[in-house]
Amino acid sequence: MNRMIPWLLLALSHSVSGAELFGVPLGTADKGSLGFAAQRAGATLLQTERNQVFEVFDSRAVLDVSFKLYLGFDVQTGKFGFAEYHIHRIGHRTMLARLTAKYGEPTLETGEFSFDERQRWQVNGIEISLQKARGCLCSQLIYSEPATHAIVRQQHEQVQRQRAEEALEPLQKAY
After folding, report:
1. How far is CA 111 from CA 58, 141, 157, in A?
2. Residue 86, helix vs strand vs coil
3. How does DSSP assign 87-137, residue by residue?
4. What's the CA angle centered on 158, arms 80 and 86, to 5 degrees?
5. Under the phi-then-psi rule, with left for phi > 0, alpha for psi from -120 to 50, and beta for the rest, what region is 78?
6. pLDDT digit string (tens) for 28-78?
7. What share of the chain is helix, strand, coil (3-state, %, to 5)?
8. b or e along 122-148 (b: 16 or more beta carbons within 10 Å of the residue's beta carbon)?
9. HSE (CB half, 13 Å, CA atoms) of 24?
10. How far is the C-alpha of 98 from the C-alpha of 114, rounded, in Å?
């Protein structure tokens, strides 16, 4: 019985404290706090997305099985929308074990193919998922605040449309 108490306390501490990255609670994170904390932890900023929809980091120094980290924020408010790690395929099982130890057993969602399988956790309004990605030999670990993530997606689509229009403008002037 005494052996179970530390495990119980560990499980309760994770459910009460919520999901966080780099010591920043994701439920209240914003671009300044999370981006700064990622860099302070050792992530290297590679790119800041135009219109500040997301930032791209080299994450190898902060998560050994990963190679890239995307942080997405609402352009208007700076509020956290998502964090997406790209995990080396060989690190998928390691990451699954780490997440299970931290957040408990995931909900499993299966898709049409075996690589469509996704593990999900819900932690105080933050959705965490791990899945093997199509098109690359990697997995994606995503932390998401669903409402803000939807806004960030819309903003990103708008930026993509604007870039496409800007790219076409010189071509249209050529004839």
Report:
1. 30, 17, 26
2. strand
3. EEGGGHHHHHHHHHHHH-SPEEE--SSGGG-EEEEEETTEEEEEEEPTTSS
4. 50
5. left
6. 999 889 999 999 999 999 988 656 678 999 999 999 999 999 999 998 898
7. 40, 30, 25
8. ebeebbbbbbbeeeeebbbbbbbbeeb
9. 22
10. 21
Provide the residue type at 93 as one letter. Answer: R
Q: Which of 24, 157, 40, 26 is nearest to 81 (CA)?
A: 26
Give me the residues of the chain with pLDDT under 70, please.
Answer: 1-17, 49-52, 114-115
At 118, the amino acid letter reads R
Phi, psi angle pair for 135, to nearest 5° = 85, -5
Nearest partner of 141 among 82, 74, 60, judged by Cα = 82
The pTM of the whole model exceeds 0.70: yes
Give the integer Cα–Cα distance in Å for 76 and 107.
33
Q: Which two tokens stand for residue 121?
A: 């956790």
